[in-house]
Write a structure and sequence with these properties.
alpha+beta; globular; 321 residues
Length: 321
């Protein structure tokens, strides 16, 4: 879930657009379209476009503030998995994946090399990884006998340290490093688009690989909100194992609440991107992107530029009709 693409220079950014780095490619999406541009082994840029029908558009109750952030979190996860599988298929020259696909008029789903079962398996595996990052910091803080806000701060710091260590360890791995380079290419293309400069490699290359509304900024907002909410939750006199079970229980129950609040704060940071407060809040995420992005090559920039141009063209088309 990365929401960074915005309107042209002179207008406020719009969190209705988002993007994600893929295997040898970039995904960009608007509220109505998802565009995946991936370079195959023949060095061709393969483009796939899918129609989107967000739950928030279909059901008004799911599009209200705080609820919409929860819905978007799950939708972004699902779209991200589909995009990664498409990019993997394309990088492996899968015949089903290596074709330019426009939105289908009849709304029928197209088969790709990976299906719902594979996406479900990876989803379960991802939840397992999240569970490790969730439980280990909690159990460590609990083992140390900490209480109150100190418990919550230590838990958050340990969780963040684990994640940074994980990224630092795998960032040197060749294939994953290329994904981080595409992440940098994605940011450069979006920064150039927001600046209103010509969308070519020469101009895009000059822009920063860091972006204030990247998902890493969202991560830091989540950490801050979780510390606040966990601190104000009462213990109701529980002790021992009962207290431990209660803490784990409300941490799990509050995940949607934290996501909803964090999303709204992310929207505000985009709306008031030039305010001193917004810059302070997004500064940690910007620094963190030094780990999650790498400087891209020119051919990677070409892919990200094509993705931005295509999603912009498709999103503007209905208004011109």
């Amino acid at each position: 879930m990365v929401n960074k693409l915005a309107k042209p220079k002179g207008k406020e950014p719009s969190l209705a657009f988002g993007g994600q780095a893929l295997i040898e490619g970039v995904m960009m999406r608007s509220r109505k379209y998802m565009v995946m541009c991936v370079r195959n082994p023949k060095k061709e840029i393969i483009t796939k476009v899918e129609n989107l029908n967000p739950l928030g558009d279909r059901y008004r109750a799911l599009g209200v503030p705080f609820i919409r952030g929860i819905v978007m979190l799950f939708e972004s996860f699902f779209m991200g998995m589909k995009s990664l599988f498409f990019s993997a298929n394309t990088a492996l020259e899968d015949p089903e994946a290596s074709a330019v696909k426009e939105p289908q008029a009849d709304g029928k789903k197209e088969k790709t090399g990976f299906g719902t079962a594979e996406i479900a398996i990876v989803g379960v595996a991802a939840m397992g990884v999240v569970a490790v990052f969730f439980l280990v910091p909690f159990l460590l803080a609990n083992w140390l006998g900490l209480t109150g806000w100190v418990f919550n701060v230590v838990e958050a710091v340990v969780r963040l340290t684990m994640f940074i260590g994980y990224l630092a360890a795998i960032s040197s791995w060749g294939e994953f490093r290329r994904v981080l380079q595409y992440h940098g290419a994605e940011h450069k293309a979006i920064n150039a688009y927001e600046a209103g400069v010509p969308m070519d490699v020469e101009h895009v290359r000059k822009h920063s690989r860091l972006h204030p509304r990247c998902g890493t900024s969202f991560l830091f907002i989540v950490l801050i909100i979780s510390i606040v909410l966990y601190t104000i939750m009462p213990d109701f006199g529980f002790q021992g194992l009962s207290l431990t079970a209660w803490k784990i229980g409300y941490r799990i129950a509050l995940i949607p609440v934290i996501a909803g609040i964090s999303y709204e704060l992310l929207r505000l940071s985009g709306k008031y991107r030039n305010s001193p407060v917004s810059k302070v809040l997004t500064a940690p995420g910007m620094g963190f992107q030094l780990l999650t992005t790498k400087e891209p090559t020119d051919d990677m920039l070409e892919v990200s530029i094509k993705a931005v141009q295509e999603v912009t063209r498709l999103s503007a088309a209905p208004a011109q009709a």
